[in-house]
Amino acid sequence: MIINEYRVINNCTEEEYQVAQLYATALASKENTGGGEGVEVIKNEPYEKENEKGQYTYKIFRLASRVPAIVKAVAPAGALDLYEEAWNAYPYCKTVLKNGYMKDHFSIVYETLHVNGSRGEIENALKISKEGKNVIIIDIANDKVSPKDYKKEEDPKLYHSEKTGRGPLTDPEWQKSVEPVMTCYKLVYIEFKWFGIQGKVESFLAKTVQTLFTKFHRQLFCWTDKWYGMTIQDIRDLEAQTKEELNAKRNEGDVPVNSLDDM
After folding, report:
1. Where is the Phosphatidylinositol transfer protein N-terminal domain (predicted)?
2. What is the CATH number of domain 2-247?
């Protein structure tokens, strides 16, 4: 098992991030859907348990073309779908990803705490043992992205928000001075129990998770003028519309090209 704590510093408030994250998730889902693959939203509804309440989602990711080649070589057809359950009790969220074929032999579990005014300085924000945990600070402006993922319009070093005046993030130490600011503390557990390839696949998945977090938060910042000023009700309306669009897109067009088949 690999345990990583990712810290993502963002140029927005914690309250703004709640809307921004949901907006960016809806748009990213549409980007990755088409040609028989993509995201299927099964449930998106309020939940309440004990002293916690929030929004529960259950999604299926049909992304067979984007799993490692080494896994595709040994897994039967149709066994590569991922099932995601998420409990969003903002500012705390928990997400569990599993696979029906591998059952308890594969999981990616991450817990996120969103902290207003933080610049990534809080140690052990999610309060677990530090033993065996790697801390990775993601810099959305300066961390390298692959050429296939780079888009000029999604480059925080170039983007300027007309509505808020934020950006571009050209200062190499922007994380220390930018206002407003908040940090996502993401504790990620990655487990792939398959004899002979466990270490290689877990390392690949950890690299992929970091790439996805980096790309997602670059988009989130560069889409500021799209989500800024939206309410949670606006987001719920957008999610309902997106669900219908995803159902249509999965059955038409080509498979999205941003494959993860690097092994």
Report:
1. 1-244
2. 3.30.530.20
